[in-house]
Amino acid sequence: MFRFENAADLRGLVNVMTAFRAACLAEPLTSALPAQLVPDGYRVVTRAVHMWGKEDGSFPDTAILSKTGDEDSDIAGGYPIIDLMLPTAKLPDGACSVSWKRRWAQDYPNGAAQLALDMAAQLPARVSYYLQATLVSKPNDIFAVADSYSDLTTWRTACNAGKHCRFEIITRFDQQGVDITVMSRGEEKK
Question: What is the per-residue pLDDT across 13-23, written as a single tens digit (0 to 9) for each?
């Protein structure tokens, strides 16, 4: 699933979008899907194990694809996290997201300001290209050079064999690094 070395640049962002397409858009979410998607070096754990380190039964219908099996360790290592809420009676289509936080210093000891600007300014074009998506939310009227860039955007793309799905992207690019979450909103209802 991760074609590139995970780094705090476009390679890592492409890994996130590739994982999001495979986990959240390519086919309907089923209980068998997490085991089919596990990237090399990753494992499937429940949300309880990922958050608290032990299974307590509090999140039985979840599957987290995790590099370390621990949320804090995944974030500290800068590894993408794939979070799947399996279908239930209350949530028949399930829910899906891919999150990634990575510090620039893990890959680039200098130059963080330029990387943050590049990632923020080019994100809409990259999402449109890599996910074949159309921006649904209002685009920013202006873009100014700053120390921190954050945004919430809504997108539409093909999913589940010819249907259309919406997804949201929450981003923050700053002097510290990348923080992005891509969340499926499910199929568009007619």
Answer: 999 999 999 99
Angle between helices 112-130 and 10-20 (to 10 degrees): 30
Radius of gyration of the chain (CA): 17
pLDDT value of residue 109: 82
Buried/exposed code over 142-156 (b: 16+ C-beta within 10 A; e: otherwise): eeeeeeebebebebb
E-strand ranges in 132-176 read 134-135, 148-159, 163-174
CA distance 43 to 3: 17
How many Å from the N-terminal Cα to the C-terminal Cα in the chain?
32
pLDDT in tens, 39-54: 899 999 999 889 888 8
Kindly state the tokens that stand for 31.
Answer: 């209980």
Q: Is the pTM of this model over 0.85?
A: yes
Task: Judge contact between 63 and 46, C-beta under 8 A.
Answer: yes
Residue spans of the chain under pLDDT 50: none
- Are the C-beta atoms of residues 131 and 21 closer than 8 Å to each other? yes
Please report the pLDDT score of residue 145 as a whole number. Answer: 86
H helices, E strands: number in the chain: 5, 8
